Prior knowledge:
single chain; Isopropylmalate Dehydrogenase; alpha/beta; ten-stranded mixed sheet; 2 domains
Amino acid sequence: MKVAVVEGDGIGPEVIPVARRVLEAIRPDFEFFPVEVGYGKWARTGCACDADDIAALKSADTILFGAITTPPDPDYLSILLRIRHELDLYANVRPVRGEGFDILIIRENTEGLYSGIEWREEDRACTVRVITVKGSRRIARFAAERAQRREGHLTIGNKANVLKSDVLFREICIEEATDAGVKWDAAFIDALTLDVLMHPAQYDVIVTTNLFGDILSDAAGYLVGGLGLLPSANIGDRHALFEPVHGSAPDIAGTDRANPIAAVRSSAMLLDYAGDREGAVRIETAIRDVLARGIRTPDMGGRAGTRTFGDALWQALQAQKQP
Ligand code: IPM
Ligand code: MG
């Protein structure tokens, strides 16, 4: 398995080495190679991500991705969005698990309000929300399959009471859920967001459009104690990229205070994608063991630094190997 590693900017270069070391401990057979994209590269070379970088990412079996700071250039397109488009990573999978709840948010990752079709006029600016049959069908099918595998339920987050584009999205999701024999319901995204926070145990798989999924997944961070804990997978038919839900957090970068759990859990999702379910479980177990010992980063009320937490995690993995 060839893994491209993009540390990125801000806290990316602090949390990704922890995640990579965990992966290396479990899978010494994996081959890692670095790809540099982002603000740092832009500041140095004037280009944040070139065609060679995209080719390098495409040459990997999987990508472990940190976070990227957007350069202060009005014409600049988010590198992450460009990568999602160029690699056609259409399903953004964001699990939110805690005491008594296990939610899988499936966010459409290539269209909706992130269509990139936008322009500025003198007295207004427009962004076109594009929902296609093809885009909706593949994400709906992906989500319905996940719900089927979990013998669960699919909730279709939408705003079809206002948006014609979501009438289409909802229709197609219902078709796919019905075809897959999955129990489903549809809910308006505003009320749904509140209800997920109030009654998380009632939810299983939630499928929604791009921006709604972006907002819902950050809001759901409230359930687990913050964004420092939430991993994600960006999956397409040919490529897959794993990244923490959080951004580059420049305010705490370089202070050894970032929580590496989101990045480490993303590497567990990478293992799961690679078919190594056992490895993924080992990572979750190691995280649980370290937290149970009271080792926590400041966002979780502790005093451990990113590196200390990473060392403890690595030791917990080694300890698992002893009979
Ligand atoms: C996310 C982020 C990105 C998004 C940004 C950084 C472009 O918020 O992955 O949730 O909006 O998708
Ligand atoms: Mg976001």
